[in-house]
Structures are given as structure tokens and as C-alpha cells.
Specification:
single chain
């Protein structure tokens, strides 16, 4: 289990599988303008052992984990859905080399990729698949590799099951090749008698549909459906955070907040929406917030300093503001990883799974969401009324007014998530989608204001340290003044944003 995470590598693969019978003749790619040369490689003997939990949690999420010997890429492999933006033929593959001691236990770095799904459940062999593979490499006119055609003779068996045998073809594009080429190449396979495969992977065919549960139907109620979708998104962003992908911490934190807001918007509608779940979601959001806040400051100060004339950037201000924030991000990210590897986090995910399952099994009649939208909007209006009173009171300016405006933002955010969950397929359509859009605009406006508040406080602390070190603090003051001007612009636009939101809510309710 002590594998080095630095030895893992990540790839994106775009491939398609086809069913053929033993008598099917290998296709010809002659005459295709994109294929100038076909290189036939020696046959490969591949042997793979697939791992999963006793409940096939990975297979239910369309994830495969295997230890494969033979071929140029032998080692530990995890294959993950790449996401809807990439299309159904594209997957992400993470690899880790085999150890020198032939250890057959799953390496820690590989297990960590799927930890949010398997949690503290055991991973054990569930199937063995042996493949005799013939490969043809397709090259273009510049002799660049554009694709691989694989003819596979497969022998497979699930643990405790009978051996199965079949033949299949695979087409895999080389990295960077336009996915549209896959259709052109696939036509040659169809002409030869191939059919689209009825399975997404060799493992899926080996295990069969009776063993691996199909995706449960979506709940009829929009609120329950939204929470179920968000729980799945949470698992996807979990993997992105572990890989330290761009913006992943931010998106996971947003997803956590969305789930919490929706649970709070309809108390009693979910079997497990008690204070424990809400508290755990709040704590998880706070842990992720350490890294996210540092990330925001680093991006903010880098852009601000880049926009200033060089003569106005005095002293080691970039090192303090930008480099310092990036170091704090790394500390926060590592703290987030520790939380995502804890039994406490696993129990939260277990509770969210039960919540989603209960929603799918007992979602009840469809809910229009009008009452929830109206109730969420009344809380926004109440917070806005309080802030207006403070704005007229000179003694209430400063931190108290900032807190009041931040309260509007938080309530606008909850309204946005509630309205979005009530709109068709969470796509922001119709009058409820308009409410979500207007609430988002208000949230964004006051988010810029809150970022200014946080930034000013940070600038004061950094300026004090710079002054104590004998450094020039001119640039800190300049940035501070710009943050004040930004906050004032946000405050000037607040009434207009509130009016637009009020009109949208009136049409939706």
C-alpha cells in the first residue's frame, strides 16, 4: 500500500468498442485520405485482474480498476468517465507501474483516486480477463500516429463464474486527434460486419447486468432529483481535488454548499437532513475554504499587480501577496486531502448515499417549488431591509454593514440553488430559471464586495508585516484604495440588482 503518488500518470483516451464474430474479416483502411500507412505490430498477450468492492461500487459508477501484465502499458490502471463535455467515447485513465516485488495489493495512490466511492471497504479481485491482441497502427501522410485498431480474442471469468469467450474490436484515437475521425474510421468496421458493442468495458460484459446494478431512475420531485445529481457531482469533484486539478477545490466547495442549501430549504423532506449532516457539510465546506480563499487572493493580487505600472509596484509585494497566498493554498489543499481521507468524511458520504437512495425510492409527488422560492426570497428581502437601515446610519457603517451585505449574499445563494433545483433539469429554464439567474447576479455582485472586504483585511496585515521589515508599503495602500472603490461600486448597484430579483420572483410565484 505504500506506493509513491508521484509515479502515477494520467491520460485521456477516446475509443470505441465493436462486437464481431470469429469469422469476421479484419477491415481495410485503404482508400481513406486520412490514413497513409498501416503498421501491424506483433501480437500481445495481456492478462488483467480487476478489483472492486463486494457490492461492486466501482462498476456501478462505470469505473474499472485493474492490474494488467503484458503490453507496453502494463501496470495498475483506473479508468474513469471523462465527463459529459468530452462525449461518451472518452475516458480518463490513471496508471501506476507494477512494483518490483509483484505485490498484488492495490497501491495507495491508485486506491486514493476512487476513495470517495470505496471509502473504507475492502477491494478484492472480482474478475480475470486474458486478451490476445493484434494491433494495427494508423499513420497520416506525415507519418504521425492517428489511431490504433485492436482485434481482441478475449477469455474472461468472474470470480466463482464460468469462463466466457468472445471477439471484439477497438478503435482508439491518438492523443490530440479530433474525435470526429472516430466516426470515419468506424464506418470501415461497420462495412466489415462489426456492430456497436453492447457493453462499455470488458469487465461490464464479464460481470453482466444481473451483477452490476443499473442506474436507478431519477426522482420525480425536482428538489430530490437535484440533490441526487449533486451527490454524484460531489464524487467527481472529489477526484479532481485529489488530482489538484484547476478550480477543483472551488467547484467541490460550491457543490457542498449547494447540497446543504437545498437540504435547508426543505426541512423534513429528506430522511437524513438532520443537523448532523448539515453540520458535517458546513465543516467540509470550511476545510475546503482555506485552500479556496488563498487561491482567490493569489489570483486577485496577481491580476491587480500585473495591471499596475511597474513604478507603482514597490518592494517584494508580489512575493508577500501572490507567492504567500499560493503557499497557503498548498497548506489548505493538503489539509483538504486529509479530510477527504478520513472516516468522518466516509460516514458523511454514506449518509448522502442513503439520502439519495431514499429520495429515489420515495420521492412522492412532483413539487412546483413555488413555496420554497417564496420563502427563500422573503429571507433575502428581510436581510436587504436590515442592510438599508444600516446604510442610512453613520454609526453602523464599516464591519456591521459589510456583515449585513454578506448576509444578503448568503441568502441570495440559497434562493439561487432552490430556484435552480425547481427549474427543469436544473438548466435554468422558465420563470424559476430566471429567478436563479437574478439571484446568481446578486450573489456575484455581493461576492465581489465580500472579496474586497477580505482582501482589505489581508492587505492591512501584510502591510504591517512589510512595514515592520522595513519594506516600502506604498503598493499596499494603492491596492487597498482600489478595493474600497470596488466595494463602493458594488454597493451602488445593489438596489438595481434587488429590484430585478424581486420582479423575477413575482413572475415565478
Amino acid at each position: 500500500m505504500g506506493a509513491d503518488p508521484g509515479r502515477t500518470s494520467r491520460f485521456t483516451e477516446t475509443e470505441r468498442k465493436f462486437e464481431v464474430v470469429d469469422s469476421t474479416v479484419t477491415p481495410s483502411f485503404d482508400g481513406l485520405s486520412v490514413v497513409a500507412r498501416v503498421e501491424r505490430l506483433p501480437s500481445q498477450s495481456l492478462d488483467a485482474v480487476y478489483f472492486d468492492t463486494s457490492e461492486f461500487d466501482l462498476a456501478r459508477h462505470r469505473i474499472t480498476l485493474r492490474r494488467r501484465t503484458g503490453g507496453a502499458d502494463e501496470g495498475w490502471h483506473v479508468k474513469l468517465p471523462a465527463g459529459t463535455a468530452f462525449g461518451p467515447d472518452t475516458r480518463t485513465e490513471i496508471r501506476h507501474p507494477l512494483g518490483d516485488d509483484d505485490d498484488t495489493s492495490v497501491p495507495a495512490s491508485i486506491r486514493d483516486v476512487v476513495l470517495a466511492i470505496v471509502r473504507d471497504r475492502a477491494l478484492a479481485p472480482v474478475a480475470r480477463i486474458s486478451t490476445l491482441r493484434t494491433v494495427e497502427v494508423l499513420h497520416d501522410a506525415d507519418d504521425n500516429q492517428i489511431a490504433e485498431f485492436c482485434d481482441d480474442d478475449v477469455h474472461a471469468s468472474a470470480v466463482g463464474g464460468d469462463e466466457q469467450r468472445w471477439r471484439e474490436w477497438e478503435l482508439e484515437l491518438a492523443p490530440g486527434i479530433d474525435a470526429k475521425l472516430l466516426d470515419r474510421l468506424a464506418n470501415r468496421l461497420y462495412d466489415a460486419g462489426a456492430r456497436p458493442a453492447g457493453h462499455g468495458s470488458k469487465l461490464a460484459r464479464t460481470l453482466g447486468t444481473d451483477t452490476v446494478a443499473e442506474t436507478p431512475p431519477a426522482p420525480a420531485d425536482p428538489l430530490h432529483r437535484a440533490v441526487s445529481i449533486l451527490v454524484e457531482e460531489l464524487l467527481e469533484w472529489d477526484r479532481a481535488v485529489r488530482a489538484d486539478s484547476a478550480d477543483a477545490v472551488h467547484q467541490m466547495r460550491v457543490t457542498v454548499r449547494k447540497i446543504r442549501s437545498l437540504l435547508q430549504s426543505a426541512p423534513g423532506s429528506f430522511a437524513e437532513s438532520d443537523e448532523w449532516v448539515l453540520d458535517e457539510l458546513r465543516e467540509l465546506g470550511a476545510v475546503l475554504g482555506v485552500a479556496r480563499d488563498a487561491e482567490v487572493l493569489a489570483e486577485r493580487y496577481e491580476a491587480a499587480l500585473d495591471a499596475l505600472p511597474a513604478a507603482q509596484v514597490r518592494g517584494p509585494v508580489r512575493q508577500r501577496l501572490v507567492d504567500g497566498a499560493r503557499k497557503r493554498y498548498q497548506v489548505g489543499w493538503k489539509r483538504s486531502l486529509a479530510a477527504l481521507r478520513s472516516p468522518r468524511y466516509f460516514r458523511l458520504l454514506d449518509a448522502l448515499d442513503r439520502l439519495s437512495a431514499a429520495a429515489a425510492a420515495d420521492s412522492g409527488p412532483a413539487d412546483s417549488g413555488r413555496d420554497r422560492i417564496g420563502g427563500a426570497y422573503r429571507r433575502v428581502r428581510k436581510a436587504a431591509k436590515t442592510a438599508r437601515k444600516m446604510a442610512k446610519d453613520p454609526d453602523a457603517h464599516g464591519a456591521h454593514l459589510d456583515e449585513a451585505l454578506h448576509r444578503i449574499r448568503k441568502r441570495a445563494k440559497r434562493l439561487r440553488y432552490t430556484a435552480a433545483a425547481s427549474s427543469k433539469d436544473m438548466q435554468g429554464k422558465g420563470s424559476k430559471g430566471k429567478v436563479a439567474a437574478r439571484a446568481k447576479a446578486l450573489q456575484t455582485l455581493l461576492g465581489d464586495h465580500q472579496d474586497s472586504v477580505v482582501s482589505r483585511s489581508h492587505l492591512v496585515r501584510e502591510a504591517d508585516q512589510a512595514h515592520a521589515a522595513g519594506e516600502d508599503t506604498f503598493t499596499y495602500g494603492l491596492l487597498y484604495q482600489r478595493e474600497i472603490e470596488l466595494a463602493q461600486r458594488c454597493e451602488a448597484q445593489l438596489d438595481d440588482a434587488l429590484d430585478r430579483l424581486a420582479k423575477a420572483v413575482k413572475r415565478a410565484t
